[in-house]
Design goal:
The chain is an alpha/beta fold. The chain has a single domain (12-465), classed as Alkaline Phosphatase, subunit A (3-Layer(aba) Sandwich). The protein has 11 helices and 17 strands. The strands form 5 sheets. Strands 1, 4, 5, 6, 7, 8, 11, 12 and 15 form a 9-stranded mixed β-sheet that branches. A hairpin with a 4-residue loop joins strand 2 (106-109) and strand 3 (114-117). The two termini are 27 Å apart.
């Protein structure tokens, strides 16, 4: 793969110049490698997955109450963690807490007999499409480190996000839309903010583009009154010429380059984006499928439907946040917390899977569900669960994965991954593999070192393909 060099600013003046170009770093700029003068990047092997929809439950959903059934947990509820288990390091520091029972009703679903709780009764109807990974692990024990790790592979900020790597490796199929889009379910800030979909040490052109959580997804697409498309073109051409002249002696200023490309993409989006994000074109039956007619599910249902429209129009990577602001965090009152949040996402996610499948898009769209970590089997504050990065569940559907199966396992209480442990580095490597990219070959030169998404530690988990 082609490599790039990113030079750090050498003076305060240069730092302020590069940091000041916020539009290019935040806005409509995730174009392809082709748009930067490099050839359009293609998958390195035949693959079904062309795009990704990552359903991120921010705050850490409890695997023990949703997809990882542990009967022993209820048998031992109220007792201390057995001596045969290594006591974990907990985020909140509670010790000797008793095991907390799971109050959910569990059933087997699909031909594969997947155990799924009644919190996801609608998603359960798609059990045969789900590849449920029970053995996920992360290095982040708190939200800042966990969310950063799940998005970038590191508990520390500064590395490119998964969506940025996908955009860098594959580009976009639609020059008139961003390659990487992020949509939250509220105006609340995701922990760490934009670094979760940032470009890190890559050029700013690969950063994710945040769409609005309600109302018009993209603001200011329409020209001001009295400005027609010809005049807008002339204004942008003049602005681009001025910016290029200014940028000629500042080649390392990737934010300015992204701003130039961002203005051009914004112009192109004025023609195509309104149709791509116009949900009024959808039938009432489709909106109902996503739960848009119900108060509890309307917001996430809208976002899921918008995600489908985006991948349908060539967007490479869409990330939807549920519970922005770590609302899935449930140190206390997990029943009320998770009941509300699961109800908000269950029907929309099921609708997304149904809609993708009916349109023949599921096989070429990799849908991922999960958070930054799971929850502990021990109680916290009596009726909550603490963070658990040592063993938790995520699932994937579509994109060529073999559904109707579970992969890996945690111990009998769901505390540690004990079979086919998949660290975040392995998950990232696997996602790129499913997109047809050899994660060991996709490198980016930073400070003279070829960097990879997995920091040289990940392995693609090919069992998901039925291998």
């Amino acid at each position: 793969m082609s490599c790039h060099r990113y030079d750090l600013p050498t003076s305060r003046r240069e730092f302020l110049q590069t940091a000041g170009c916020g539009f290019g770093a935040v806005a409509l700029a995730a174009l392809t490698g082709h748009s930067q003068g490099a050839p359009l990047r293609l998958p390195q092997r035949a693959t079904k997955a062309k795009s990704v929809i990552f359903l991120f439950m921010e705050g850490g959903p409890s695997h023990l109450d949703t997809f990882d059934y542990k009967p022993l947990l209820n048998q031992l509820a109220g007792q201390s963690l057995p001596a045969s288990f290594k006591p974990p390091i907990t985020a909140m520091g509670e010790t000797n807490s008793p095991l907390l029972e799971c109050r959910r009703t569990w059933k087997r679903h699909g031909e594969g007999g997947l155990w799924i709780s009644d919190w996801f009764e609608n998603v359960a109807r798609h059990a045969d499409d789900l590849a449920v990974i029970h053995s996920c692990a992360s290095s982040g024990i708190n939200h800042a480190g966990g969310v950063c790790s799940m998005n970038t592979g590191s508990v520390f900020g500064g590395r490119p996000s998964l969506g940025a790597w996908a955009s860098y490796g594959l580009g976009t199929e639609n020059q008139n839309l961003p390659a990487f889009v992020v949509i939250k379910d509220s105006e609340s800030t995701v922990v760490n903010g934009v670094r979760n979909w940032g470009n890190g040490f890559m050029p700013a052109v690969y950063q994710g583009v945040e769409f609005n959580s309600d109302g018009v997804p993209i603001k200011f697409l329409d020209n001001p009154k009295g400005v027609d498309r010809r005049r807008q073109r002339e204004k942008l051409d003049l602005l681009a010429a001025l910016n290029r002249d200014y940028n000629a002696s500042r080649a390392s200023n990737t934010e300015l380059d992204a701003r130039i490309r961002g203005y051009e993409l914004a112009y192109q989006m004025q023609a195509e984006a309104p149709d791509a994000v116009d949900l009024s074109r959808e039938t009432e039956a489709t909106k109902k499928l996503y739960g848009m007619n119900e108060e509890d599910t309307a917001v996430f249902g809208r976002n899921c439907l918008l995600a489908r429209r985006l991948v349908e129009n060539g967007v490479r990577f869409v990330q939807l946040y549920s519970g922005a602001g770590s609302k899935w965090d449930s140190h206390k009152g997990i029943e009320a917390n998770h009941s509300r949040l699961c109800r908000a996402v269950d029907k929309p996610i099921a609708g997304l899977l149904s809609d993708l499948k009916s349109r023949g898009l599921l096989e070429e769209t990799l849908v991922i569900w999960g958070g930054e970590f799971g929850r502990t089997p021990m109680s916290e504050q009596g009726d909550g669960r603490d963070h658990n990065p040592t063993g938790f569940t995520m699932w994937m559907a579509g994109g060529g994965v073999k559904g109707g199966r579970t992969y890996g396992a945690t111990d009998d209480l769901g505390l540690y991954a004990v079979e086919d442990r998949l660290h975040v580095h392995d998950l990232h490597s696997t996602i790129l593999h499913l997109l047809g990219i050899d994660h060991t070959a996709l490198t980016y030169n930073h400070k003279g070192r070829p960097e990879r998404i997995d920091q040289n530690e990940g392995t693609a988990y090919t069992k998901l393909l039925g291998a």
